[in-house]
Design brief:
The chain is an alpha/beta fold. The protein has one domain: 3-Layer(aba) Sandwich (Rossmann fold). It is built from eight helices and seven strands; from the N terminus they run αααβαβαββααβαββ. About 40% of the residues are buried.
Length: about 190
């Protein structure tokens, strides 16, 4: 079941316009691939893009030569991702129930994935991501910090419960220092071998 925040966001968002946003950024000389840049800085060979949406991050990672799988619970998002990149593997599944039978060097959760997971399933979603990490692999998650959404203590607790430990925390995908008053987190948690 989708949480209210996700349902409200999804009702307001036209997928064509959503994808267009990233094209306009690139045309304006802005970098629409900060998430892919950060992921690639860890030099993974394989990445699971959890909550992949319409596939922007996964497609960019594949363009850079990585072995990528995208997974999302929203059937419209997965359909759009498949249409944009039919050569990639796209899986329609919740993160909590995901079972690909393989592991990855990185699992990336870009764009408020964890807050959009139903509150009662967030710990299971983090555990599902952890199950797909190779020993020493990294879970990289970015999300807004706002009232009613998961706190850092919540998220760190779910990670610890899934056998992950905090490696890095920034306030942006380009590694801006995380400090008091930050309203966004990019957290890198490592699978304990």
């Amino acid at each position: 079941m989708a949480p209210d925040d996700w349902s409200q966001w999804r009702e307001r968002v036209d997928l064509e316009g959503y994808d267009e946003r990233w094209r306009r950024m690139a045309e304006a000389g802005e970098n629409p691939h900060g998430e892919a840049d950060l992921v690639c800085s860890f030099e993974p060979a394989s990445v699971l893009d959890g909550g992949c949406g319409t596939g922007r991050v996964a497609i960019e990672l594949a363009r850079r030569g990585l072995d990528v799988v995208g997974a999302d619970l929203d059937p419209d998002m997965i359909t759009r991702a498949r249409a944009k990149a039919p050569h990639l593997e796209w899986v329609h599944s919740s993160l909590a129930d995901l079972d690909l039978g393989r592991s990855f060097d990185v699992v990336v959760l870009a764009g408020n994935v964890i807050p959009f997971v139903a509150a009662g399933e967030r710990a299971a979603a983090v555990a599902g991501c952890s199950r797909h990490l190779s020993p020493g692999g990294r879970l990289i998650a970015g999300f807004q910090l706002r009232a009613g959404w998961p706190t850092l203590d919540d998220y760190d607790g779910w990670c610890a419960g899934a056998g992950l430990e905090l490696e890095h925390r920034w306030s942006t995908w380009d590694r801006a220092t995380f400090g008091t008053g930050a309203d966004y987190t990019v957290t890198v948690s490592t699978s304990i071998p």
